[in-house]
Input
Amino acid sequence: MSEVQLPSRSEDFNDWYNTLVLRADLADYGPARGTMIVKPYGWALWENIQQALDRRFKATGHVNAGFPMFIPKSFIDREASHVDGFSPELAVVTIGGGKQLEEPLVVRPTSETIIGHTYAKWIKSYRDLPVLINLWNSVVRWEMRTKLFLRTLEFWWQEGHTAHATYEEAQAETQQMLDVYVDFARNEAAVPAFVGRKSDSERFPGADLTYSMEAMMGDKKALQAATSHNLGQNFARAFDIQYLDHNNEMQYCWTTSWGLSTRFIGAMIMTHGDDRGLILPPRMAPHQVVIVPIHKDDTEKAAVMEAVERIRGLLEASVRVKVDDREWLTPGFKFNDWELRGVPLRMEIGPRDVAKGSVALARRDVPGREGKSFVPQDGLDVAVADMLATIQVALLDRATAFRDENTHEPRDYAHFKDIVNDGFAFAGWCGGADCEIAIKADTKATNRCIPLEQPDEGGSCIYCGQTARERVYFARAY
Output
């Protein structure tokens, strides 16, 4: 077996990404167009994302539940902007059990409508509020152009749905969950992002306000990594979600929804990966340390494997460790294989290491000899933990520096076009949809988000030259 060669990331980022997802055993194409099979290694990565988020959700008072994937089509039709936004993407079931259905069923594209129907039955009094529920499920959206993890007909995600007595409570929830996503992205996945409000044309169908987390990928395009929506009373009025308040008067609830999907796996790949493969943040990696035994004969093997098992026992209480004992493969192939899969730390143990009471450690984020060191076996658990923590910080620092180095404030529209051709532009915007549309048509760049904290002087709109209402991030995006 020979070393896996990937397309060059700098020469063809798209081909690099598609090839890497397949060769690193993260996912495969499903038999139906646009579908995805998530392989065990990719699913282990998703499980780590789930666990990191689920801890945060429960710490903020949310509980998990399950809702049906089939939704009566009449539910989708009840919120006008929602149906307008999702109609082109709906998968609709018209036949069941060999018979024409009396009412078509929509395969869940998102759950606001069935949640609205259910909350209207559950909520009767202010004592029933707030309702704080999260779902872990898959949804179906009939995308025309698909890409593994980033955009597939079916994808896995979490979707939170809450109901509140007041606008202020709903808005606080919307912003709290955005903060949860930012904390997760930075501290678990080492993915920095710009955060802000979506423009009217970019917000979620049926929402009053949409907030998003926009990350810069390795090709300097934007990826919307998570969203949080204040739905106002739109779904409450459409589904009659009302409660009796303290004054015995009926009031409509205020609702929110928020979500992060398997698309985030794509975000980590494109933020950290290089020409040798994945580079996974230690806190997310399915295997944080892989141990590669090196021996030539049975005598060497016995001594090496005794040390390997002892070290595995020392480490496995605190880190996710795997021993690569595939004897039919050479050590060199194993090194390349685990580099491809992005394991943060590789540990090599051979006869000389056994004799010296040491191990060789190779950092995935630092190539070649520079990333390799020899560490005593005594106190190895502490040394490994420290090195993993160092890698985690280094990845965040590197991604943050890359984002900031490729984000610029344009002098004029000509400079703006140069910037968005290869990065993010932070520019003034008059607030007009016409300027947004014109910029997108001319440059393929879209208004990614409007930061919550604005500079004192907005300047002028980068397109029309009128007084800017806000400063926003523009970029080409996935």
